[in-house]
């Protein structure tokens, strides 16, 4: 009779929400080295990996065989325990650390397809092996750091069906990759068999992991190994008290008294009888297996959501820092734009050659004459101008253009230097700008500033043309020339006298009045006021665009910080997953359906004989010695500790 995996609608919904949270976690950016960022990055990476390794496959099928991971500290005798549980040396023991580099997964032959596929731990390659007779110090394979990314699958009839045993590396190994792999394997477990010793059970590292187990509500069996004869009761009582304080008071404790090993390096069978009985009882009780799987899954999802919220907080902090840096950059360049605007208001641009050229053109002696006489005289001056006697209006225009261009380039350079200096005052800013050079304005700035001035001047011509719609006004404009009117409007825009003193004040002030009276004669007082306001607004808007473009050079550094999911997206995804998980396991089942191929994790549907509905096999088959088949090999000298 085939045993078909089934999922109901609530499970499918929970899987969808889990996928959404995974995408949010995978897409969150935490590049800045702010306080807590390293821990958040590690937590995010571990959470994504745990979703792939454990949560998604377990949620997809609560009836799949359980994975019991044997973990613990260096020298806790984990591999010796595993060998004793199986009854034959399958994993190497020894005093040289680390002994276990390639984790060994022992399973019933009936469960082979469940573990040969990438249903769980998809990132680890599979190597299939068989057991050979050898003492424990030669069992398994030679420790090989190059094989750290694979797991050796060993099928043996002595392993009970529906519970596999995985011998993991030391949680406090001297090798970083071993510690990371141990954490990954423990995170993928349905239950732990956690080994420690009489003289090391109070160490900090194991308790950090046991605290995590309590937070996940995972089923844990604690093995207190190498307890001196006669000290069992005292040591066990102290350990149980510590477990109770950490929320693990119901965890079974198995005391293994210090014993003489036989010539194969094996513990006496009775030393691990209690542990074997516990695992066998779980394996033979379908309801208990379902309870353990459901409890561990629920606790792991809750822990995942807590992690997601912690990562969200770290993400918020990254965004705040990025926003502060962007605000600093924006403010500095905005201030530069305002300084350019101030320079166009306070008469600075009418100093020197600009003022002299303008004075050549109109002078100030006619300011108090009657409007008619003033206009007539001015028109005569303009006529003479085009005949080549005074300096042409184009020279005034050129001087204004040069002055405005110089002010913009200077202020942009000042802004670039100030922004660079302020950002790099902090360690985060120095990290962000490592390898970059934004202390100077862009090479394209002078040309862009020139285009800005020309564009603004063209805009003034268009404004004047629009204003001179009437025939009479148009005639007046044509009599003087469009360039002359444009220059006059520029002078009016720049002629506030706040920055001039002495003789400059009198000359510039008078010149501005002349320019304004000229324009008022043509367009009228209100129209001139509007023209000047529009001209100034247009110029200031263009300058802000120029400075914004300079500030935008920082986007290449800040955009990667700001890209991806934000903290709210993570929090929302976590809440939605929790809501979806509330219905998992509580539905009546009337909406259940057979697991479709699109839902199925490889090799999740098994028949009673252990045959897979989808063929599952090792991702890698290697031979240990000449003459072995390509289907199986003997497990060579290996990786266990005592």
Summary, kept brief:
By secondary structure, the protein is of the alpha/beta class. The chain is built from 20 helices and 12 strands. 44% of the residues are buried.
Describe the structure.
With 642 residues, this protein is an alpha/beta fold. Helices cover 54% and strands 9% of the residues. The protein is built from 20 helices and twelve strands. It has helices at 9-27, 37-60, 78-86, 112-116, 176-187, 204-216, 232-245, 273-283, 286-345, 352-362, 371-386, 393-423, 427-432, 445-467, 471-480, 482-494, 502-523, 525-551, 555-562, 567-581; strands at 2-3, 6-7, 66-72, 104-107, 125-129, 150-155, 163-167, 191-197, 219-227, 253-257, 593-594, 606-607. It has an eight-stranded mixed sheet, with helices on both faces. Strands 1-12 form a two-stranded antiparallel sheet. It is elongated and about 115 Å long. The two termini are 43 Å apart. InterPro entries: Dynamin_N, P-loop_NTPase. It comes from Agrococcus baldri. The chain crosses the membrane at residues 480-500. Keywords: Membrane, Transmembrane, Transmembrane helix. Residues 69-201 form the Dynamin N-terminal domain.
Please specify the SSE layout and strand pairing:
Layout: E1 2-3, E2 6-7, H1 9-27, H2 37-60, E3 66-72, H3 78-86, E4 104-107, H4 112-116, E5 125-129, E6 150-155, E7 163-167, H5 176-187, E8 191-197, H6 204-216, E9 219-227, H7 232-245, E10 253-257, H8 273-283, H9 286-345, H10 352-362, H11 371-386, H12 393-423, H13 427-432, H14 445-467, H15 471-480, H16 482-494, H17 502-523, H18 525-551, H19 555-562, H20 567-581, E11 593-594, E12 606-607
Parallel strand pairs: 3-7, 3-8, 4-6, 5-6, 8-9, 9-10
Antiparallel strand pairs: 1-12, 2-11, 4-7
Helix pairs in contact: 1-2, 1-20, 2-9, 9-12, 9-18, 9-20, 10-12, 10-17, 12-14, 12-16, 14-16, 14-18, 16-17, 16-18, 17-18
